[in-house]
Amino acid sequence: MYKNIFDTHAHYTDSAFDEDRDSLLEKLPECGIKYVTLASSCIEDTIANAELAEKYDYIYAAAGVHPEYADCCPYDYLETVSSTISAHKKEMAVGEIGLDYHYEGYDRDKQIKIFEEQLDLAKQLGLPVIVHSRDAVEDTMNILKKHRPRGVVHCFSGSAETAAEVIKLGMYIGFTGVLTFKNAKKAIKALENVPLDRLLLETDCPYMSPVPFRGQRCDSSMIAYTAEKAAEVKGIAVQELIDITCRNGMEFYGIN
Asked: pTM of the entire structure?
């Protein structure tokens, strides 16, 4: 069994875990999980994540509003995000924030406005950001080049060229179970070009379950399969890659 695993992006407040959340979270350290960071989607999620992080020693949290919630974001959301971070010492980042143009009907200008506001907040608070980008590469990269945050582009699905641009900005790149999919050529090509000291592993659970669990609910214990594929691509031992990405995650989130 592997040890020292850092799942740098998870969603354990999701309703998919309502029936067995606590029993699962109590067992994860026995599966080699050293740390987990909870990413937030909306204001309610931000508050719930902060409370869950206080309950478990190995869990940390981020606060922020996902682009899919931009249209229904309360006017005082920034104040709530900021106050939640101030009130909880285990709040380590602003996120997940960014742009998502996959579905029609969302206000792209509102997404951009909220993305930039949260980038400014993170800079004011001295925190890194967790960036979500889906079908919005050009706008995302233009905004990141403008603000130049400390951050990670999570669940990376872009090209090797985009990965190189992200790395040039000094940011990290997070990979999920997508690496294990049969059609993962693009992600694997991108991974080949990511230096080991800029690499993070994540599940994005309950989503993105790696093969052989594709289609099932994902949890942090499954990150081992992603690590195995990543280690194969990078040509190093699996535990070595896990140790490196754990150190990267600790540095990124400021965990001592």
From this structure: 0.97
